[in-house]
């Protein structure tokens, strides 16, 4: 007698098989129930530990069809013993990278920086983070008009404004302008360097130190002349400097802290 299966479920209603993926350290997945996205840092005893870009850890059970990998449902399984203890990949800013993550729709909040070079440096180091957070960076071309710019922007709870200013030292013109526009929803911070070039570590561009330029001289031109760089095209010199910046490790802490502070403020 022919035996028939008792399963009368139509094929199109049966759960489709999903791939099994080893939970190797560094693999970035999302737990759909919570929306938590992070890199695998540990897999043991039927659980997997994920670390998100802010360093927060969450532990989840290794359940079938329990995770999303680049938007596709997968089943995580314990990696083979030969898998090495690879660390999660990082962005240039040092955050945990999220490969394949889509850029968030831009927030109403913004970060303004003083010049084009500032904007290019922020983009190179924090660009991945900013796209995930939906933060747009724009440059001002100077701070003299900052009060009117802030007034036109009209910062509020859902549209916070962060501003990064060069050479922000107590008592300076920039300091007084920053004090005048800072409010609950507008934050102005700065670094102590005359120009954003100085925020790049000298060793990263192959010099012992950034030269001192006498007051009254154009700083970029004076630096180029002191170092024997072509002073007639400071834009090209900046591109050469920027090319030597690979990550946050090439920048001075006084800049790193201020940019991170602005990102936290705008996304709070």
From TrEMBL:
Organism expressing this protein natively: Streptomyces coelicoflavus
Signal peptide: none
Domain DUF3097 as annotated: residue spans: 20-79, 110-267
Source species, domain of life: Bacteria
Protein's name according to its UniProt entry: DUF3097 domain-containing protein
Lineage of producing organism: Bacteria, Bacillati, Actinomycetota, Actinomycetes, Kitasatosporales
Pfam families found in the cross-reference section: DUF3097_C, DUF3097_N
InterPro entries hit by this protein: DUF3097_C (IPR021447), DUF3097_N (IPR053883)
